[in-house]
Amino acid sequence: MPVADFEVVMGLEVHAQLLTRTKIFCGCSTAFGGEPNAHTCPVCLGLPGVLPALNQRVVEFAVRAGLALGCEVKRKSVWARKNYFYPDLPKGYQISQYELPICEGGGVPITVDGKERVVQLVRIHMEEDAGKNVHGVAADGSSGVDLNRAGVPLCEIVSAPDLFSIDEATEYLKSLRAILMYLGVNDGNLEEGSFRCDANVSVRRRGAAALGQRCEIKNLNSFRFLRQAVEYEVRRQVEVLEGGGRVVQETRLFDPARGETRAMRSKEDAHDYRYFPEPDLPPLVLDDAFVEEVRRTLPELPRARAARYQRDLGLSAYDAQLLTAERAVAEFFDAALAAYGAGAEGAKKLANWVNGDVARLANESGLAPAAWKLTPEKLAALVKLVDAGTVGGPGAKQALEAVFREGGDPAEVVKARGLAQVSDEGAVEAAADAVLARSAAEVERYRGGNTKLMGFFVGQVMKEMKGKGNPAVVNAVLKRKLGP
Amino acid sequence: MSGAGELLDLSLTGLSAALAAGRVSAREATEAALARIEATDGRVGAFLAVTAERARERAAAADARAARGARLGPLDGVPLAVKDLFLTRGVATTAASRILAGFVPPYDAAVVERLEAAGAVLLGKLNLDEFAMGSSNENSAVKPCHNPWDLARTPGGSSGGSAAALAARQAFGTLGTDTGGSIREPAAFCGVVGLKPTYGRVSRYGVVAFASSLDQPGPLGRTVGDAAALLQVIAGRDARDLTSSTRPVDDYGAALEEGARGLTVGVPRAWLAEGVEAGVARRVKEALALYERLGAKLVDVELPHTKYGIAAYYLIAPAEASSNLARYDGVRFGLREGGAGGLKGMYGATRAAGFGAEPKRRIMLGTYALSAGYYDAYYLRAQKVRTLLRRDFERAFERCDVIAGPVTPAVAFRLGEKVADPLAMYLEDVFTVTCNLAALPGLSVPCGLHPEQQLPVGLQLIGRPFDEATLLRAARALEREQGPLPRPAGLEA
Ligand SMILES: [Zn+2]
Question: Per the database record, which ranges form the Asn/Gln amidotransferase domain (chain A) (predicted)?
């Protein structure tokens, strides 16, 4: 495969929905779903005579993102019309920003193979989303248009062609997504389309300085699709070049069913968007006081938080990164640690739980931390039960799962489900006696010097006690009974 | 009140005083206007829709308020009409285009809301050039409108119905919109007063957009005072139009009668030189001389970039129009044709059947001007002309309070005369587009009848930004001195 002789160069364009309650130019709800066209009004339907009234929260959120990403926030930016015909675009143009966007420059930090670097950004601009065409619902075969999304605020974050592998591209998206979620400006939801990505992909021979011709790939709504699409596209472009051909600049659509990209628009059909300044909106002018106020209220970002966890709590880089990838998870961890009583020992235990069983349960259930029945206080209480020997490891896992799924107080769950550890010597002795009585041969060999069999006896006793025996007590009782 | 004819001759302010004094009821005024429309509009063609029922209900409500001593203000109970470019909830709004067939707006334009909140009685929707594109009202897809002074002539455009209805005594005040002269030119042709306010003085919310950076709604009245009374109600910030100004609205009545003494009137001499028909030039010069007699000072001013105005206007306005008219695609409202022909078939068939020749011409001009590779040479250059024009006016207003000149090069032309020559039609706007490009207020006030043709001539007054008060004061000084025009002859013959 000649692919190894080539290097991929990528730039990503991320469309992130800004999490305002209402749309960018009208008062309609931005809630996902709903009956088609339930969240519409004359403005977002593009009826004659309507004018856009700017939602200031959108500007605030875009500035927040820009500041967090180290961009230059422009004190004056200009709205522009991007003109094209499509049924889901009610006005026949999209209000966006073109020549003078709200943010320029900046970067997104990534770590690949242990190496940290900052991927350069070109710009961030604000724009309105379009609606969607709905096919196959009407009895007569006609299509419909749902404009619930029309006018939902987006920011488009455009990177430089500064990504040189699929791993880098993936890390870039994860880092950017985490930052936006931390800022509270985006919910990071790829499936519902509130975090979408287009990729500009080109290849060049290793060592070449000039960029190759790029193709824009659309419809990458999962990390997996991004990987598949880019892998396919790199192979395709390399084959074209190796075959003596030239890569044609075009927009290609990723088809997840076939794992392929294919050309979306032919050249004759290429769009001329006829951008011009939006006459219905004055230039957007920001004063320093506003920008400084937004800067003052920026939260701690994932990398700063992970560094703090390593420095102050002695957590490993791996644990710290897992805990901080999502702001809500990190906040859950902080609250659990506060409830437990801060300290490096507690931090390590809680990190193991949060990154282990809690993360597994969250993945399985698909629930966000806000929807968990497990609260930070309950997790702290459960770990304290383990510390106190009230419940053992297997019992604690069961208790956690029960609390996560059904709620309840950990101590009560342990009790009600009979998960408590048995430390009572009498009970352990009874179980040990039963095991030893039926294992005469093994006892003989143990006493003959095969002390490795202790593990066998412990296992049998635990089994006899349905896993609830306190391991320390079980060991002590067995040692005494088997004797020297 | 002795008779309907006398009632209909009242100005808006005259009717308002009669309503306040209880000498006449809103019902009587409304019935008189409806009867007049019924009797004359077959010949004039000013109305595209008459909303008699709504008008009668609102008149009754106004009379009830008057009976309680709770009149809302000068417009309460006054029958008015608006250009059919303003959206009216529950009443079809056509922009005089086939493409809006069947479109009944779910909301009222901001200015319609304001008029009705002030108690005004809306009689109906007035004729215009399709999408306000034209200078003769002949581009109406519904029917042409006729000039009450001579039914064979144009009332001007695009707000032809708004001016003709006033001249025909069908309403006591009207609203129009002015993108390049669409209020002032018909006002001049029909012998009424028309005011294009400063860009941003009046909300554009709910006005079918033609060229967004130039469009401005404004009043037309039979007297200067009528225009002032209407502007008083419609002016002011509207949070739904971010281009509307937050600047407080002046009291337009306060200085109205202060006369011309102490005013400095700037005269761009080039505007009276070549290209202006002799009779029009004579009346304009007489008006200037009258100002001097009334104590105003005349100074010459230079507006050297005026000559680029038409070219810049006919790039910017079509460019914005090409974008504003993209929403008429058959998908959500209005006309839909060729639905079986797939998406592109539907777009093509709908727009081919729905738009008349002039919107099509402008959509093509504008699309071209905005296209990749042409944008800098056309649209951007035209924007630079705007800046130069604005500077011309700034310099001129260092030396004068108002600028005075002709509204149009000639009086109302005959219907059909310029239909085949779009460029000649565009040149009608030569003196008016500069106001829109520079975002300034402009007013047209009658300055007598053409010496031979016996048709009205308009004097154009242009003011500093947001200084409508001075324009109205200067116009009133001329009006008071000249007295009213005679009744238009066309309808009485
Ligand atoms: Zn809406």
Answer: 331-482
Q: What is the 3-state secondary structure (H, E, C) of chain A?
A: CHHHHEEEEEEEEEEEECCCCECCCCCCECCCCCCCCCCCCHHHHCCCCCCCCCCHHHHHHHHHHHHHCCCEECCEECEEEEECCCCCCCCCEEEEECCCCCEECCEEEEEECCEEEEEEEEEEEEEECCCEEECCCCCCCCCEEECCCCCCEEEEEEECCCECCHHHHHHHHHHHHHHHHHHCCCCCCCCCCCEEEEEEEEEEECCCCCCCCCEEEECCCCHHHHHHHHHHHHHHHHHHHHCCCCCCCCEEEEECCCCEEEECCCHHHCCCCCCEECCCCCCEECCHHHHHHHHHCCCCCHHHHHHHHHHHHCCCHHHHHHHHCCHHHHHHHHHHHHHHCCCHHHHHHHHHHHHHHHHHHHHHHCCCHHHCCCCHHHHHHHHHHHHCCCECHHHHHHHHHHHHHHCCCHHHHHHHCCCECECCHHHHHHHHHHHHHHCHHHHHHHHCCCHHHHHHHHHHHHHHCCCCECHHHHHHHHHHHHCC
- Residue A81 included in any domain: yes
Q: Is the pLDDT of residue A484 over 80?
A: no
Say if residue A366 is exposed, middle or buried (CB neighbours under 10 Å; 0-12, 13-18, 19+).
exposed
* Residues of B whose CB is below 8 A from A46: 327, 332
Alpha carbon distance B210, B359 (integer Å): 10
pLDDT digits (tens, 9 = 90+) for A155-181: 999 999 999 999 999 999 999 999 999
Most trustworthy range by pLDDT among A217-221, A437-441, B321-325: B321-325
Q: Does the pLDDT value for residue B4 go beyond 80?
A: no
- Please say which residue of A417, A437, A454 terminates a domain: A417
CA B205–ligand 1 middle distance (angstroms): 14
Q: Does B11 participate in catalysis according to the annotation?
A: no
Nearest by CB: A93 against B107, B326, B372: B326
Least confident of A3-12, A66-75, A101-110, B360-369: A3-12
Looking at residue A454, which CATH number applies to its domain? Answer: 1.10.10.410
Range of the domain at A406: 300-417
User: Which tokens go with B443?
Assistant: 């007013």
A245 and A263, same domain (yes or no):
yes
Q: Please say if B83 is a catalytic residue.
A: yes
> Considering CB atoms only, which of B239, B243, B325 is closest to A282?
B243
Per annotation, catalytic residue among B25, B162, B182, B444: B182
Q: How far is the CA of A142 from the centre of ligand 1 (A)?
A: 25
The predicted pLDDT at position A265 comes to 64
What value does the mean pLDDT take over residues A458-470?
A: 86
Q: A48 and B105 in contact by Cβ < 8 A?
A: yes
Residue B64: exposed, middle, or buried by beta-carbon count in 10 A (0-12, 13-18, 19+)?
exposed
Q: List the single residue in A51, A53, A85 with the smallest CB-CB distance to B204.
A: A51
Those of residues 428-487 in B touching chain A at CB distance below 8 A are none
User: Tens digit of pLDDT for each residue in B279-289?
Assistant: 999 999 999 99
CA of B204 to the centre of ligand 1 (A): 18
Provide mean pLDDT across the span B58-78. Answer: 97
Percent of chain B with pLDDT over 90: 92
Kindly provide the ipTM of the predicted complex, given to two decimals.
0.96
CB B109 to CB A49 under 8 A?
Answer: yes
Domain boundary among A238, A262, A290: A290
What pLDDT score was predicted for residue A1? 44
**Domains of chain B from N-terminus onward:** 4-234 (3.90.1300.10)
Partners of B174 in beta bridges: B81, B220
What's the whole-number average pLDDT of chain A?
Answer: 92
Q: A94 and A55: one domain?
A: yes
